């Protein structure tokens, strides 16, 4: 599986978790999906920085903007994690994070994944995808 497909599937999983957090009526339900969302986004970001970004930088693509957006979202997720879901500020902050993640995914699919298709050959995309799948399995086994 190539890395474009792997990342697109990650994005779909993250978007599904955003919806589940948004529609969770009970605080316990929101927490359950939020914990999974946070874990999923952090792993996604970590693996992109470990596997995809070096290949794109070698091909001359600048990843500074997307890295900064990822770091901002990870910080917001940590702030939200420190609040209780019963608190109205939790919902307010979650809405901000949700919007940030949606924009991040849209930009990534438009810019980063297109740059990957354009600047990396199919063999490299396949190899990066295989590395991403293997590293994801490895990280999940550790957790």
Describe the structure.
The chain has 143 residues and is mostly helical. The chain has a single domain (3-142), classed as Four Helix Bundle (Hemerythrin (Met), subunit A), CATH 1.20.120. Helix content is 87%, strand content 0%. It has helices at 3-23, 27-58, 64-81, 88-119, 122-142. α3 (64-81) packs antiparallel against α4 (88-119). The chain is elongated and about 50 Å long. The mean pLDDT is 91.
List keywords for this structure.
87% helix; 0% strand; 5 helices; elongated; mainly alpha; Four Helix Bundle (Hemerythrin (Met), subunit A); 143 residues; single chain
Describe the secondary-structure layout.
Layout: H1 3-23, H2 27-58, H3 64-81, H4 88-119, H5 122-142
Helix pairs in contact: 1-2, 1-4, 1-5, 2-3, 2-5, 3-4
Structural classification: mainly alpha
According to CATH, what is the class? Mainly Alpha
Overall pLDDT = 91
Tally the helices: 5
List the helices and strands in order.
HHHHH
For the biggest sheet, the summary is: none
Estimate what percentage of residues fall within beta strands: under 5%
CATH topology, by name, is Four Helix Bundle (Hemerythrin (Met), subunit A)
Determine the oligomeric state from the structure.
single chain
Give the CATH architecture: Up-down Bundle
Task: Tell me the distance between the termini.
Answer: 24 Å
